[in-house]
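# step 3/5: fold
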Amino acid sequence: MSLLSAVWRSSSEENLLQRAAAWIKNEAGAKDCAIYLQDSEGMKLRAAACHAEAKGAIAAASSLAVLAKETRNITVKGSVAAIPIAGPEEALGAIILNFSEEAPDDLRQDLGLQLYQAHHLMASAEQRGGEANKLMAVTEVTRTMAQSPYLEEILQLLVHMTAQRFKYKVVTVRLLDEKNQILVLRATQASNKAYQRKRAIQLGESIAGRVMKTGRHAVVQDVQSDPEYVGHDLAVEQGLRSMICLPLIVSAKPVGVLTCYTGDIHTFDSEEVEALEALAKQAALNIEHAKLQVRSTLMQEMHHRVKNNLQQVASLLRLQIRQSHYKDSGQALTDSLSRILTIAAVHDLLSRDDLDHVGTKELAETLVHHTSQSMIPPGSQIHFSIRGDDVYLNTSQATQVALIMNEMIQNAVEHGFTKANSGEIHLNMEDKDGMVGLWCSNNGDPLPEGFNPDEGRLGLQIIQSLARALGGKFSLENRQGWTVCEVVFQKATGE
């Protein structure tokens, strides 16, 4: 029986090598057999058919395997022999044989040649099968994406199925934020939270930014050492090595990038690149179609949203009517206008690219800009700082959170700086496994002794009411020289 016949019964390279080790051990009459193959990191033990007590001797024979491969001659040392796995053009490694006594003189070099031929045949078959599998993978992923009308679901299908079908370690999608000209991470199948919170990338920055500008894919052999790659520490931590980044193009205009990482040094051959380019083109079309569908849905639902927000305005005005602390109608109308403009800010953001989600950082920036222009009295030196995660929320939660932020900021300005005329207001946001924390802190006037937020002003009543509507918790207290207003709630599923 020839070793070549084992190829047709083997499901993978590893399976073939294991079968070969057992077959060669019997053919050579050896007690133990091991197969060493050379890779980029050196000579590696790939398969063994040996007794437990012989594992030490087999492991120590790697230097003998190197010598046999380099000389392409059988090398013997006592009871251990090495047969080169070599063909006409190259040597792949060596077979290690361990005998009960001295290694025999009539060892067969053709065993190494047979293994070389079998390995070459297996690799060729896997390559042909791999090319067919890649085309099938593209078809399967694109067909599955086409079944969903929802942008977030399409993005998740794209990263998860691409990683699974092409056996990549990490796959990500970044989409273009046209207003800020940055690439925002929108989907990845990586479970590491630090990776999921990777910062946005400026156009022209890093590999992804360059791909967006050129409209052509880019390949990096090793992201851990490439000077242009942003995020070396995370790449080392996650064990990422080779990368390909492809533009997502619609009507000759890049709208984002698809990036695939491997866990070892990998060469992206022409067939693989062509398959990924076809996948990226189809994904871009699906993404654009989903955005158009969202626009259509939003137009159909606009009257419903307007009705709900008018009801919210009416509820806020009813609460305000019950308050008697206003000195004049002008102050009451100013507060009402501020709350209505806050709802308008959410809808302004919804009219842009991320139609079904709103980022909390941009909301905070909009509200801080409005407050700094309209509420801070001349001569006061109050500085704002927005920190933490950019948490993306659906429209319902975004509206409620915007109103909470507005009340937090106004409360800090109005009541935190009655005596003090300078200081800082920090707005912090954090997303920990779907639990969102929102804090507004100021280092102005502290809360008075015995202050009870449940008996507080209208703004605090609104915050408490909205926090309950979110299913969250509200607190207001002095902490280490700062007055801290906090709301914590669970982010709605399907974000």
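# step 4/5: annotate
The chain has three domains: 3-122, 148-287, 323-490.
# step 5/5: archive (pending)
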